[in-house]
Amino acid sequence: NAGVTQTPKFQVLKTGQSMTLQCAQDMNHNSMYWYRQDPGMGLRLIYYSASEGTTDKGEVPNGYNVSRLNKREFSLRLESAAPSQTSVYFCASSDRRFAVTEAFFGQGTRLTVV
Amino acid sequence: GEDVEQSLFLSVREGDSSVINCTYTDSSSTYLYWYKQEPGAGLQLLTYIFSNMDMKQDQRLTVLLNKKDKHLSLRIADTQTGDSAIYFCAILGGGGADGLTFGKGTHLIIQP
C-alpha cells in the first residue's frame, strides 16, 4: 500500500530557482494538503484542495502555488525560492466523507535553499 | 484562527507514564487528534477523540478531553524507548475550514 507518495525526498536549490514538489495518493481521497514543518513551529498549512479542481490558501501561502492536477495528484510549486523556504514539506490527504477525518501523510521533502 | 499550544519537551523514565498536554482556542472543534512523528518520518495518526467524548482508551493510550477548559491530554502507560518521538496535537475546527491545525509538537524523551 503506497498511501501518500512525495518526490523528491531531498532537494537543494539556489535562491531564485524554481521547482515543483510532487504528491500523489492512491486512496481515492477528496482532500489533499501541503504543510511545512519548521523547528519549534509545528506544521503550518500552506495550501489545501478540498476536491479536484479546487484549491484554497492556508496559513502561509505566500511564495507558493499549487495545482490539483487530478484526484490523485497535488503539486506545490516554488517559483523563486528564498532561504526562508528552507523547510520540510509534507503532503497529506484525507477523505472528509467519513466521520473521522484521518489525514495520511507522506514521508516529507527536505528542502534547503542556499 | 485556531491556536493550539503544547509544551516543547517532556522527559520521563522508561516504565513510567507520560502525559502530554495540549490546549486549544476554538470551542467549535469537532475532532481532536494525536499524531506521532519519529525521526526522519512523516506523521502517523495515533488516536483521535470526538468532541462529545470525555475519554478514549486504546491499549496503552488514554486520551482525555476537557471541553470546558479546552484541554486535551495523551497518556502513554508504561513508556518504552520506542515511544521516543514528537507528538502533535491537531484540531479539526468546526468553522468549515479544511485542514487540521497542529500544535508545535512535544518531544518525548525517554530516560533509561
Strand content of chain A: over 45%
The helix/strand series of chain A, from N terminus to C terminus, equals EEEEEEEEEEE
Contiguous low-pLDDT stretches of chain A (5 residues minimum) are none
Query: How confident overall, as mean pLDDT of chain B?
Result: 89
DSSP summary, beta strand count of chain B: 11
The pair of chains with the biggest contact is: A-B, 28 and 23 residues
| Cα end-to-end separation of chain B | 40 Å
The strand count of chain A comes to: 11
Which sheet architecture does the biggest sheet of chain B show? Answer: 6 strands, mixed
Order of helices and strands of chain B: EEEEEEEEEEE
Strand percent estimate of chain B: over 45%
Biggest sheet of chain A, in brief?
A: 7 strands, mixed
What is the mean predicted local confidence, pLDDT of chain A? 90
Cα gyration radius of chain A (Å)? 13 Å
Oligomer state equals heterodimer
The unreliable regions of chain B are: none
Distance between the termini of chain A: 35 Å
Q: Label the structural class of chain B.
A: mainly beta
Account of the protein in words:
The complex is a heterodimer of chains A (114) and B (112). Chain A is mainly β and 114 residues long. Chain A has strands at residues 4-7, 10-13, 19-25, 31-38, 42-49, 56-57, 65-68, 74-78, 87-94, 104-105, 109-113. In chain A, the strands form 2 sheets. In chain A, strands 2, 4, 5, 6, 9, 10 and 11 form a 7-stranded mixed sheet that branches. By secondary structure, chain B is mostly beta strands. Chain B is built from no helices and 11 strands. In chain B, strand 7 (61-66) and strand 8 (71-76) form a beta hairpin. The radius of gyration of chain B is 13 Å and the shape is globular. The chains are: A mainly beta (114), B mainly beta (112). The A-B interface holds A 4, 31, 33, 35, 40-45, 48, 50, 56, 58-59, 90, 92, 96, 99-108 and B 1, 4, 8, 31, 33, 41-45, 48, 50, 88, 90, 92, 98-105.
